[in-house]
Write a structure and sequence with these properties.
The complex is a heterodimer of chains A (255) and B (261). Chain A has a six-stranded mixed beta sheet with strand order 6-7-8-3-9-10, with helices on both faces. Chain A has a four-stranded antiparallel beta sheet with strand order 2-1-4-5, covered by helices on one side. Chain A is globular and about 50 Å long. Chain A starts with 9 loop residues before the first strand and ends with a helix. By secondary structure, chain A is of the alpha/beta class. The longest helix of chain A is centred in the last third of the chain and has 18 residues. With 261 residues, chain B is mostly helical. Chain B has one domain: MetI-like fold (Orthogonal Bundle). In chain B, 81% of the residues lie in helices and 0% in strands. Chain B is flat and about 75 Å long. At the A-B interface, β6 of A face α7 and α8 of B. The structure holds adenosine-5'-triphosphate and magnesium ion. The site of adenosine-5'-triphosphate has 10 residues of chain A, from α1. Magnesium ion (MG) binds next to α1 of chain A.
């Protein structure tokens, strides 16, 4: 385990983002502790990816400020890595070279170690296109972690995977997060995934943080248990904007 | 069992050649019986003989060499300019603003239409041929390089930036490989234009080269040499195309679309 302050301490104050006259983010305030795991949920198009791009420094906020470790961000943040929904592996580089992207030659052992951690070291010399979707995402995870980022941003990285592979990947990410101590921000459509993995679940609605729920269940979390299921239902109902007494089953079916 | 498999293979290889051989035989028969005038088409055996004769005198080799030289120099000059312009216009919007409209206007002039002007400028010297070839290959390479760079997956570029690739590294590791399939399409197309331009240029104004050999032979009614020249051009066209294919397979071996060519 790395020192408890290894992860980035993130402060987002009054951040707004406009595209023309479309105001996507209208004042986001969020503080994330070093090493914390925060899940961000919200309806499609509510600005989750936009927020992530601002945190990575790929784009600039229209108003407000973002601080990493109490320093105002300028340009791309070198201690950030993103895992995208599509793996975004370079098709013209072998798996191992993909993992080692942006690293110096002498750091190759780090890339190999990362590939070992995701269990794909025996595929190191293959072209990415021969891998399955789940394997591609594992390579992408290895690539994200090879350079020991202090902040990992995950933009629905498991959205396209089947249920079984998904749970495997969730466990893998959780394990590596515990081992390495980075701060993690996970965007997901899957409330159950959010509750299973995060210390906190944050809901973005109308360009603002509309809900911020700490998840106190001890790890490793048991999904089958009643309290877990109840919390998932409660959050789901909140996301759907339904009254507390509406049975969530209907809410689910109507989506 | 094994033997029949082998002969099956041989049969498969031979079938495409049956028709050309049959045509050659019929042609040979028609010409030698005097049914087909040798002024229109020479006897195939005469073409072979003419080739042997030209090889023995060393003349063929000389003409071949000079044609090759023109093709390669013209291709390298035009290709580099096209590649360079395509790269900077694709990478820097400001360069695109300055150059693209002008390039598109010049591109619409058929380069062969410039032959009279080129003869005025350079006479029938080497520069004329090299210039025409260069002008011919420049645009297909320019257009395809530009298109290749513009169509590189933005997601990959964004990923590269997040993963610490800056300017030169980003270009070398992401943008160029992403544009390469399109650039190679341009190269392949340009190789075709290269031969075409050279044939026309050498036929109209030259005192050496395969095209000249053909025109010279025409004056002396040597249909066999004319035909030989045409066959040589066809052969070189085919060789150039095979080279382009080889290059594609070599450079794009990561791409499943190019692995089984
Ligand atoms: N570069 C851009 N220019 C204009 N509008 C944009 C741009 N990027 C995002 N938007 C708009 O901002 C809004 C939020 O987009 P964003 O991608 O952040 O949504 P999201 O919450 O990630 O949705 P999803 O869950 O479907 O991925 C959308 O309406 C989108 O059209
Ligand atoms: Mg998104």
């Amino acid at each position: 385990m790395e020192s408890p302050t290894f992860g980035t301490y993130l402060q987002i104050n009054g951040v707004e983002k406009h595209f023309g006259n479309q105001h996507v983010l209208r004042g986001i305030d969020l503080e994330v502790q070093p090493g914390e795991f925060v899940a961000i949920i919200g309806r499609s198009g509510c600005g989750k990816s936009t927020l992530l791009r601002l945190i990575a420094g790929l784009d600039e906020p229209t108003a407000g400020e973002i601080k990493a470790n109490s320093e105002l961000m300028k340009g791309l943040n070198p201690e950030v890595r993103i895992m995208f929904q599509d793996a975004r592996l370079l098709p013209w580089k072998r798996v191992i070279q993909n993992v080692a992207i942006g690293m110096k030659k002498e750091d190759l052992p780090k890339a190999e170690l990362a590939l070992k951690q995701v269990g794909l070291i025996d595929r190191a010399k293959e072209w990415p296109h021969v891998l399955s979707g789940g394997q591609k995402q594992r390579v992408a995870l290895a690539r994200a972690l090879a350079s020991k980022p202090r902040l990992l941003l995950l933009d629905e990285p498991l959205g396209a995977l089947d249920a079984l592979t998904r749970i495997e990947m969730q466990r893998l990410i959780e394990r590596l997060w515990k081992e390495q101590g980075f701060t993690a921000l996970l965007i997901t459509h899957d409330v159950e995934e959010a509750v299973a993995m995060a210390d906190r679940v944050v809901l973005i609605e109308d360009g603002k943080i509309a809900m911020d729920t700490p998840i106190k269940f001890p790890r490793p979390r048991q999904r089958g248990n009643a309290a877990f299921a109840a919390l998932v239902e409660k959050i789901l109902r909140r996301v759907m904007g339904e009254e507390e007494n509406t049975p969530a089953v209907y809410a689910r079916q109507s989506t | 069992m094994k033997k029949s498999l082998f002969s099956d293979q041989v049969k498969k290889q031979l079938i495409p050649w049956l028709l050309p051989i049959l045509i050659l035989i019929i042609w040979q028969l028609l010409s030698s019986k005097g049914i087909l005038s040798t002024k229109i088409l020479p006897v195939p055996s005469d073409v072979v003989m003419a080739g042997v004769e030209l090889i023995r005198s060393g003349e063929l080799f000389q003409h071949l060499l000079i044609s090759f030289k023109r093709a390669i120099i013209g291709f390298l000059i035009g290709g580099s300019i096209g590649l360079f312009l395509g790269l900077i216009n694709g990478l820097f919007p400001i360069a695109d603003r300055i150059f693209d409209t002008t390039i598109q206007m010049v591109r619409n002039i058929p380069h062969l239409a410039m032959i009279p002007l080129v003869i005025l400028w350079f006479g029938i010297g080497e520069e004329a041929k090299v210039f025409l070839v260069a002008a011919g290959v420049l645009f297909p390479i320019y257009v395809n390089t530009l298109h290749g760079i513009r169509s590189v997956d933005q997601g990959l570029i964004e990923m590269g930036r997040v993963y610490g690739l800056r300017s030169w590294l980003l270009f070398w590791q992401v943008v160029l490989p992403g544009a390469l399939p399109s650039i190679l399409v341009g190269v392949r197309y340009a190789l075709g234009i290269m031969w075409l331009t050279l044939i026309v240029a050498e036929t109209i104004s030259a005192d050496s080269g395969i095209g000249y050999m053909a025109m010279n032979a025409r004056e002396f009614m040597q249909t066999d040499v004319v035909l030989l020249s045409i066959l040589l051009y066809a052969l070189f066209g085919k060789i150039a195309d095979s080279m382009a294919k080889w290059l594609e397979r070599k450079c794009l071996n990561w791409n499943p679309n190019y692995q089984n060519l």
